Request: fold
Amino acid sequence: MVRQLEPPAAAAQPFTPMSESPSTEVPSTETPSTQPAAESSGAAVGARKDLVGLSRAELGAELGALDEAPFRAHQLWHWIYHRGATDFERMTTLAKSLRAKLADHYVIGRPAVRRDLTSVDATRKWLLGLADGHEIETVHIPEEDRGTLCVSSQVGCTLTCRFCHTGTQTLVRNLTAGEIVGQVMLARDKLGEWPSPNEERLLSNIVLMGMGEPLYNFDAVAQAMQIVMDHEGISISRRRITLSTAGVVPMIERCGAEIGVNLAISLHAVRDELRDVLVPLNKKYPLAELLAACRAYPGLNNARRITFEYVMLKDVNDSAADARELVRLLQGIPAKVNLIPFNAWPGAPYECSTDEAIQRFGDIVNAAGYASPVRTPRGRDILAACGQLKSASQRARRSAAPAEPAPSA
Ligand code: SAH
Reply:
């Protein structure tokens, strides 16, 4: 699955914020980044291993190897994931000798912040450097009643969806569990959310909608989400986590059974001929199989629906007939439909549907009883919208000036 490794390049993350707030084109601000002591997560730093991303059992095994009682893992977990400590010296419930021993062997790392951009609408985007020099982006979208973190699961993506900029990026590797959790921990550092607040969190929700296909990196994603959901740590409920997939059918059931998070499906077309082109993975797992897997997803009911993402492409997939066919396909699935205005990028082979076409499409879906909100991009002035992040990162490095306003969706 892994293609060629390019020089660690810009992130091209198809970030898809979900908000109705208007965005404006006033220049953004950039926050100077303060680097934590240890950079990188999920990797060895020098001779010292990063503890971020280890499961509770793995943490216990590390302590066992140091001839420490495995139950110490409980205390260590609390410091790492509830208090956000990155310095063993601060772990005052541990004996001084243990703290010293831990510091000799381990680090509690964070990805390095290469850029920290804040939009006029308060959306915030971090360009993060990994231990091997690759870069990914993570985006925080504050809203009135929640704050959502859009997290990446791979560097790049192998799927080559026709409308997605990330599909044009060569290379790729899976992120480790530590690098996935590390995005959440870094965001919590930046938002000042340690120890874990009980309510009113700035980071209350997670969407696995960044760069990459999370179901192609299932083990690391699952381990990372188990850590993030753990009640004695970051403690974000599975009901506040949404995993988006282009439709890796065999993994959908495991996703439901093993992590039980909300599911979003990047559908984008209602006929196999077209979906084969837009989302080539469809040739492997065609619509009928995909929808059958959705029907079987555990725990669905009216309060817990699958989100079907549908990018609006002018004269390609946006007709009234398409909308009616979508309604037919969704029959019997507790579902909502998220209409995503296409964000153009240089050389993109499509245009965004007209407002009228989007409205007509949404009305038909809505009349059939499915909520069909239109997803309005957030953070456009920092080029954080879907499919724009690759060029944003490249541009950002060339110039310290605020990013230009993005082309409208
Ligand atoms: N690989 C997973 C996770 C990525 S989610 C998946 O496909 O679901 C990213 C979302 O952004 C997907 O729904 C994708 O269809 C959407 N997207 C990508 N490029 C876009 C663009 N240029 N305009 C609008 N939406 C886009």
